[in-house]
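Justification of resources, computational component.

The compute hours requested in this renewal are based largely on the per-chain cost of generating structure records like the one below. Each record pairs the submitted sequence with a full structure-token output. That output is archived, and it is also reused by downstream analysis tasks.
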Amino acid sequence: MTPDTLERDTTAKVVAERLRSEIQHGTLAPGTRLRQNDVAKRFGVSTTPVREAFAQLQAEGLVRIDPHRGAVVFHPSVDDVLEFYEIREALESLAVSQAIRKIGADVGERLAELIATMRETEDPRAWLRLNDEFHLELYACAGKPRLSALIDNLRDASAPYIHMFVASRPLSERANEEHQAILEACLSGNATAAKRAIRDHLRHASTDLAAFLGQQEHALHGDVPA
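The structure output for this chain reads:
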């Protein structure tokens, strides 16, 4: 690999990281068109690393390359959401069943602290970071890094519309009690109860998200007010 190629590769990764963060945090909303020239100008780079960044984000499911519109931030359908959550339910149930045997007192205390902080956190972006920490720290106890990586990737791909949904709801309607139920089931050592708590949590989330996205789709097409 030549120095020029290495520099271009590094630049593409930096551009991809910046765009990924903006997509996941809702700064770039689903359906937003990403023009190569505009992105290159904004980041002060050529269009080549931007094109490579778009390809990377497409591989991650965050961007779709439309033949007519170019790169567009992924706008999930209700079916997309339900499929994401069906896969997550299978993987996260497996992870929690493996993790439950290895959760020490220190991890239990850390997870309880995260839930306590989530209860007091109003900012949706901060709440979602804590939410990710709770789930990923729990699943890390399984000692299955490939499984954790698959779950992490699915959660990242879901992040843009989860952020929109959480931002639209008051603090009282967030899933803190469901996280508490997951933790209590894990600390009790009851794998069946823990998997049930994860399943209920994810199915509740998928139902709410599907309804939210359906409402957004209707509003987008002028059927009902947003």
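The mean pLDDT is 86. Residues 3-73 form a domain with the Arc Repressor Mutant, subunit A fold (CATH 1.10.10.10).
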